[in-house]
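Hi F.,

I've been meaning to write this up properly since the lab meeting, where we talked about keeping a consistent format for the predictions we share between groups. The idea is simple: the sequence comes first, exactly as it goes in, then the structure tokens exactly as they come out, then a line or two of notes. No screenshots and no reformatting. I'm using this chain as the first example so we have something concrete to point to.
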Amino acid sequence: MSTSEKNTSTTAKILYRPVGLISSVVAGVVAGQIFKQVWKHAAPGDDADAPKALESEYDLREILIAATVQGAIFALVKALVSRGGAKAFERWTGEWPGS
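Output, unedited:
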């Protein structure tokens, strides 16, 4: 274990589960809204919605670009929200909720 790792009790892990679950849902909603705005401003043409994999009018390249951008935004927002929630939990309880 490195010096930067923090000890976590089983109680802290259990108490953090509802916080982590709620923050994950919030992160998903926020990430979805951010992606919609990014795609609306970045996509060519008038279509504000990102292409879906089963929509035949889009070529594979455009679908893969949309999926990559969406995945990157979701991962970034989830990491920020998870880390912020863990830090807030640590401030409130004095224990780090991670493993």
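Notes:
Residues 14 and 97 are 8 Å apart (CA to CA).
DSSP finds two helices and no strands in the chain.

If this format works for you, I'll send the rest the same way.

G.
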